[in-house]
Amino acid sequence: MNINEELKEFILHGYRQYIPHVSIDCAIFGYHDRQLKVLLIKHKFLNGWCLPGGYIKRTEKLVEAAGRNVKERTGIEGLFLQQFKTFGDPNRANTDKFDEEKWFALTGIRMTPDNWLVDQTISVGFYAITDFSLSVPQPGIMAEACTWFDIHAIPHLEFDHDEMVKEALHTMRVQLYHYPIGYNLLPEKFTLSDIHSLYETLLEKKLDISNFPKKLITLGLLKKTTEKRNIGAHRSPHLYRFDKARYDQALSEGLVLS
Amino acid sequence: MNINEELKEFILHGYRQYIPHVSIDCAIFGYHDRQLKVLLIKHKFLNGWCLPGGYIKRTEKLVEAAGRNVKERTGIEGLFLQQFKTFGDPNRANTDKFDEEKWFALTGIRMTPDNWLVDQTISVGFYAITDFSLSVPQPGIMAEACTWFDIHAIPHLEFDHDEMVKEALHTMRVQLYHYPIGYNLLPEKFTLSDIHSLYETLLEKKLDISNFPKKLITLGLLKKTTEKRNIGAHRSPHLYRFDKARYDQALSEGLVLS
DNA sequence: GCATTATTTAGTAAATTTTACAAAATGAAG
DNA sequence: CTTCATTTTGTAAAATTTACTAAATAATGC
């Protein structure tokens, strides 16, 4: 089956493999060099941007469907993925940007009202965080673009995806205070400055340069290694690593950062 | 259309009015007199207990579907309803308790594999809290029982509802620390003792009798009224009420109880 | 009336945590 | 071997939490 055949099969009979009426959407936040971005895609048949997402295979758990989507768009596997909210307002899919001609040009199929893709869909929102410099954004066959947007320069999004981004960002920031985040975002060994600027970037908030790392160390989350990093004409900072046992415990039990 | 006709219509053509493959389930917590309970139902055709739930009308928002279910089972409207998680594991609906003969006796319809009710379903979990003494549990036509169970004496539940209750309880307790709860659970005017024991019951945890109310007052959440309640041979406690503006602000912005 | 009593409130001191800031340590560069 | 930017430790003040004491109070029973 070539790609075109596969696409036709999906459009006409996708409901055999995927659950109709339910999708997942992913707000993938990208961090690098004190910048915070979000990954958006532009479908070939929709004249507007939206969050990457897709249907759920009948054999998949929700988070696995989200992980598959994240991997397809970024090439990255094993990210911290968190369900944040499910969206189901009756009018959430309203868009005037669907271009029937572009759809036909792409698929060779006229969309009919009885097609399984047309009906009302509830969507489960997940967010993820990654280092965007490690990603290789892939539009895939349905999209013409897949791009990182600065968090402050997000265009108006299709469907209810504006609200999704807002909710995802809110949940992510609340959870930053209650769960350790960084295991997938920082190299195995990193400096206190690295993790400090990671949190400052994600929260868009100043955190005391002296007290913040102290807190992490007091909580037992970080362990000092014997190595140092040479950063030029200054004092070389120690390298730290997460105490995995303590980190996982904090993930399941929660903690309180201030 | 009589009730039986309506039921048949639902089974055979419900997908016209309801969205297939998606449902909501409600963990309705009941509080009264320092007891914490949860409302369970026993379907006529399932030999086990489970959470009340149902399908979503095509015209409804998710929370409206949950509210409709809560009202149908308890008679109470306008409860604080909170989405806590969506469940979609492929094997979540596994049960050996479905009794085909009881189903046929109830509905007069043989369940066929192509029926819209049979296929895999994703369920959006909501929790609610109410004063169970104000409720009038209604089994409805599908269930033979609808009963409050003490939180420590919950039977094993069908499907993945054991996990749902656990998650709902966890979310409820986390949110108790971050949002004010009580507006729907206490009469308009109540004593500091009332709200103190409400929180102790929901959290199953001792809260200092002197410091806890002080915190609520300091946060501006409570306002003292001029009235007092006569409780017998003791000092009469003042009646308080929520400062609605401050309460709503705390609901949207969050707060921190310790 | 008036002492008794159980409970509600207010008060406060100690303990702890957070915050803000100062100063010392460090290591490369000139 | 001094300078410098940055990391790291130290610490004092401020704020909050916690634990406990004591005062206020209102009905009751004598």
Automatic annotation (TrEMBL), chains A, B:
Organism for this UniProt entry: Puia dinghuensis
Pfam families reported in the protein's UniProt record: NUDIX (PF00293), WHD_NrtR (PF21906)
Residue ranges constituting the Nudix hydrolase domain according to the UniProt record: 21-161
Matching InterPro entries: NUDIX_hydrolase-like_dom_sf, NUDIX_hydrolase_dom, WH-like_DNA-bd_sf, WHD_NrtR
CDD domains recorded: NUDIX_NadM_like
Superkingdom of origin organism: Bacteria
Start and end residues of each NrtR DNA-binding winged helix domain: 182-242
Name of the protein in question: DNA mismatch repair protein MutT
